[in-house]
Design a protein that fits this description.
Elements (H helix, E strand, L loop, with lengths): L6 H20 L5 E3 L1 H8 L3 H13 L3 E4 L3 E4 L3 H8 L8 H9 L2 E5 L4 E3 L7 E7 L2 E6 L5 E5 L6 E2 L2 H5 L6 E4 L3 E7 H10 L14
Antiparallel strand pairs: 1-3, 2-3, 4-11, 5-10, 6-9, 6-11, 7-8, 7-10
Helix pairs in contact: 1-3, 2-3
Length: 206
């Protein structure tokens, strides 16, 4: 069971989310994110909070803290994961980076329900860290595991084709980092790159 988030944890999650999005959308490898002090001043929080956030980012390979220089963005491992996936590997670097910039980085803690059965199917997800579990909950309390997507795997791709409700629940097995793209966002990307070798939606795993 997921315990309610405290105000401090919600603030931590908000800062981490904003920094992840900033790295994803605006900053390239070697870019300067800031110093611990400048980030404290920007968000109005203690150095303990900022150090905790940047430690989480560093664990995911997004930044490194160089003494006397500050927080530096590293080569984005999320893009590298996308590049290695068969569905995205044919794309040129410009198209791939544009697709990535249109995605949303989300983090879920172990035990959290990422998507619920019968929820609207309006997005698909790529696991870039951790593991999830696609599961059906029976009326008698029994569970049936359908799949266990891990790093580099998709789930929810059928939502891009038909927009139908989710056929199953997806639960975070441990702390999970996901890239999410909404159905309308993907079609906007297809329109932006009509002559690029973007794979057909039917090639996506279900």
């Amino acid at each position: 069971m997921v315990t309610p988030s405290s105000p401090k944890r919600l603030l931590y999650q908000k800062i981490e989310y904003e920094l992840r999005q900033r790295i994803a959308q605006d900053l390239g490898s070697g870019a300067f994110l800031g110093t611990i002090q400048s980030l404290c001043d920007q968000y109005g929080v203690s150095s303990t909070t900022i150090k905790r956030v940047t430690r989480s980012l560093a664990e995911d390979g997004l930044v490194k803290n160089i003494r006397k220089k500050g927080i530096i963005v590293q080569r984005n491992p999320h893009i590298e994961i996308l590049r290695q996936m068969p569905i995205f590997s044919p794309l040129d670097p410009v198209t791939l980076r544009d697709i990535y910039r249109r995605m949303t980085v989300k983090r879920w803690y172990g035990g959290a329900i990422i998507v619920g059965q019968e929820e609207p199917g309006d997005a698909f997800y790529v696991v870039v860290k951790g593991q999830a579990r696609e599961v059906l909950f029976g009326e008698n309390g029994r569970e049936m595991t359908l799949s266990t997507p891990g790093e580099g795997d998709f789930f929810g791709a059928m939502a891009l084709l038909d927009g139908q409700p989710r056929p199953a629940n997806v639960v975070a097995v441990d702390d999970v980092v996901l890239l999410s793209m909404r159905r309308d966002t993907l079609f906007a990307c297809l329109e932006a790159h009509p002559h690029r070798a973007i794979p057909p939606l039917t090639a996506l795993p279900l």
